[in-house]
Automatic annotation (TrEMBL):
This is DNA-binding transcriptional regulator, LysR family. It comes from Novosphingobium mathurense. One of its GO terms (molecular function) is DNA binding. Belongs to the LysR transcriptional regulatory family. Keywords: DNA-binding, Transcription, Transcription regulation. SUPFAM superfamilies: Periplasmic binding protein-like II, Winged helix' DNA-binding domain. PROSITE patterns: HTH_LYSR.
Length: 299
């Protein structure tokens, strides 16, 4: 009979890319993970992983089985969580991914509050500015800001954020403040590298797209903020990155007559995950911590 601990070892090995990393994730000896993998392959009568000194690779059978294995684990975790919820407690692992900048600035106190409310939950929070696929990345849920647009996912809205066009007082003194969309063409921008370099502004019932010259392209909002503070150029950033700097006068919010495209925050998770009680509790706790409207908009 196929055992659940073998499925867990298989999924962890695939997600982490090695047996050593899987053993660290599971808190087991490497030899135990290897034994569980070997036992599961014996029970199934197929080879799931091609092992070499350099890498692990899924076989055809492994490719066919991995999504079902993930689904089995999610169903077991969900069933356990529902039982815990019915008894008034939430417990067990919860693996979350979030963007680096937002995580550094805003998730520490919010996550601490959630875990204080639910001491039985064992959370793993990974901060990553690259695109994390909530459906296949091995996470229970992924926090994103911006449009989701993926039919495989359920997206729970956490909070809203405006995007603000900002610059340092020194930059504006040297180059002048833009007052219209056409003025932006002559300015240099600090641009986010993981999306198109366009700036989108709501004009009437449509959108106007500006393509500024790049003083810097970078895939991290905190570095973008620091570049704007240093006077390298204009930056279009969510208010949760710059609300304190604007309040203190270190950055100036520039009004060109039209609002920039906003950015909502979502907690996303695979549709086949079900309405996880742990994810639902996390979303509710984060919304309470951020407020409505969120505290970065009030500032």
């Amino acid at each position: 009979m196929m055992k659940l601990d073998g499925i867990a070892a298989f999924v962890a090995t695939v997600d982490e890319g090695s047996i050593s990393a899987a053993s660290r994730r599971l808190g087991l000896a490497k030899s135990v993970v290897s034994e569980r993998l070997a036992e599961m392959e014996r029970v199934l009568g197929v080879t799931l992983l091609q092992r070499s000194t350099r890498r692990l690779a899924l076989t055809g059978a492994g490719q066919a089985f991995i999504e079902r294995a993930r689904r089995i684990l999610r169903e077991v975790e969900e069933a356990t969580a529902e039982l815990d919820a019915s008894s008034g407690k939430l417990a067990g692992p919860l693996r979350i991914s979030a963007p680096v900048g937002f995580g550094v600035l805003h998730l520490g106190p919010a996550v601490a509050r959630f875990l204080q409310e639910n001491p039985g939950i064992e959370m793993s929070l990974e901060l990553d500015d690259s695109f994390v696929d909530a459906a296949t990345g091995g996470f229970d849920a992924v926090l994103r800001h911006g449009a989701v647009g993926d039919g495989r996912l359920i997206a729970r809205r956490l909070a809203a954020s405006r995007r603000l066009l900002v610059a340092s007082p020194a930059y504006l003194a040297a180059h002048g403040a833009p007052t219209s969309l056409s003025d932006l063409e002559r300015h240099r921008g600090v641009l986010y590298a993981n999306r198109t370099g366009d700036w989108r502004f709501a004009v009437g019932s449509g959108w106007s797209v500006i393509r500024p010259g790049a003083a810097l392209r970078v895939n991290n909002g905190l570095v973008m903020r620091d570049a704007a503070l240093a006077g390298l150029g204009l930056a279009l950033l969510p208010s949760f990155f710059v609300h304190e700097e604007i309040r203190q006068g270190d950055l100036v919010a520039i009004d060109i007559g039209w609002p920039a495209e906003g950015a909502e925050l979502f907690l996303t998770y695979p549709r086949d995950h079900g309405a996880s009680s742990k994810i639902r509790a996390l979303g509710d706790s984060l919304r309470r911590s951020f407020g409505d409207p969120p505290y970065w908009e009030l500032a």
